[in-house]
Design a protein that fits this description.
Blueprint (H helix, E strand, L loop, with lengths): L1 E3 L2 E2 H12 L9 H11 L4 H10 L1 H11 L6 H5 L5 H12 L8 H14 L4 H22 L7 H23 L9 H10 L4 H13 L22 H13 L5 H18 L15 E4 L2 E4 L5 H13 L1
Antiparallel strand pairs: 1-2, 3-4
Protein name: Core-binding (CB) domain-containing protein
Organism: Plantactinospora siamensis
Length: 310
């Protein structure tokens, strides 16, 4: 089926990709030639043609090719973060033009460069080593066992922002890290309570580097539980554990025991729905046990017995 100028969509796509990715010397680099082959080989080339016409990512890719320089992670890190940049990086990694890396963690460097671009040089002299040698280094060590998640990367960015806010506050109060005292720090924490947990690593680092004098950021107290299930909600969950055949039997048994234990803990010891005794046989799992004269003991025991025979 012809697409344009008497050519099929795949032929048109190959020509347009070649034109888009040709460098200043009139040739296409081997890496980008590989990208042309991958994109022109898709099942529906017309979709890539639409992408070329309307996508900011395609324009960014053309700009990168127009420099004539090899495209690398380091080159992309020097650009301002954007959705188009992230898409191009993912595309180049997927097509094996760029190596796989811990993307959530490795984007931190670009974020720091951007946030420091218009700030005081003195802030950059502190934040860059703090980020590189402390935050990223520790996060990379943790990533050996567990990949960096989007949320953990967001925590790293929040730690950088908290440190920068403190440095800006010091400038505004004619203070430095060397003259920062514990009362000063507590004043800042009182004004920025949501930043407290994110400043802890920065103060630990400044203490170790002897930039500050044995300061401490208190650990924020954990709130007590305040959301509880109502009696009717516990009953509904118990009923589901007893009668929902779509749930795995072992989950139903465990869930029923937990719900009965919860009813016992919040109800009266003499509640007719949950009567306990140590003198009769009981069914249970670990520390959760239910006496045989509880009205739910028999169905729970039946579930456990049927699971043991399965």
């Amino acid at each position: 089926m012809l697409y344009s100028d008497g050519r099929c969509a795949r032929c048109v796509l190959t020509l347009r990709l070649t034109d888009l990715l040709t460098g200043p010397d009139g040739t296409v680099s081997p890496e980008l030639q590989q990208l042309i082959e991958v994109l022109s080989g898709v099942a529906h080339p017309a979709t890539i043609l639409i992408w070329l016409r309307h996508s900011m990512s395609a324009r960014l890719l053309a700009q990168l090719a127009g420099t004539g320089e090899p495209i690398s992670h380091a080159v992309l890190d020097d650009l301002a973060p954007s959705k188009a940049l992230h898409y191009i990086r993912d595309l180049l990694v997927t097509t094996a033009i760029l190596p796989v890396r811990d993307e959530h963690l490795d984007r931190i460097t670009g974020f720091v460069n951007q946030i420091l671009a218009d700030g005081p040089a003195g802030h950059a002299a502190i934040i860059k080593p703090y980020t590189h040698w402390y935050l990223v280094r520790h996060a990379r060590h943790r990533s050996r066992n567990q990949p960096t998640t989007k949320n953990s990367a967001a925590g790293l960015r929040a730690s950088v922002r908290a440190a920068l806010l403190l440095l800006a506050w010091l400038d505004g109060h004619q203070l430095t890290l060397a003259t920062l005292t514990q009362p000063h720090l507590e004043d800042w924490l009182a004004a920025n309570p949501t930043r407290q947990r994110y400043l802890q690593s920065f103060i630990r680092w400044t203490n170790r580097r002897r930039l500050t004098r044995s300061l401490a950021v208190p650990t924020a107290p954990r709130g007590e539980p305040h959301v509880f299930l109502t009696g009717s909600a516990r009953t509904d969950q118990l009923r589901r554990c007893l009668h929902d055949d779509d749930m795995p039997v072992e989950d139903r048994v465990a869930g029923a025991l937990v719900r009965c234990s919860a009813s016992r803990s919040v109800g009266s010891p003499s509640s007719p729905s949950t009567t306990w005794t140590a003198a009769r046989p009981a069914v249970g799992c670990g520390s959760a046990r239910i006496g045989s004269n509880c009205r739910h003991a028999w169905p729970i025991w039946s579930l456990a017995f049927s699971n043991s025979r399965a």
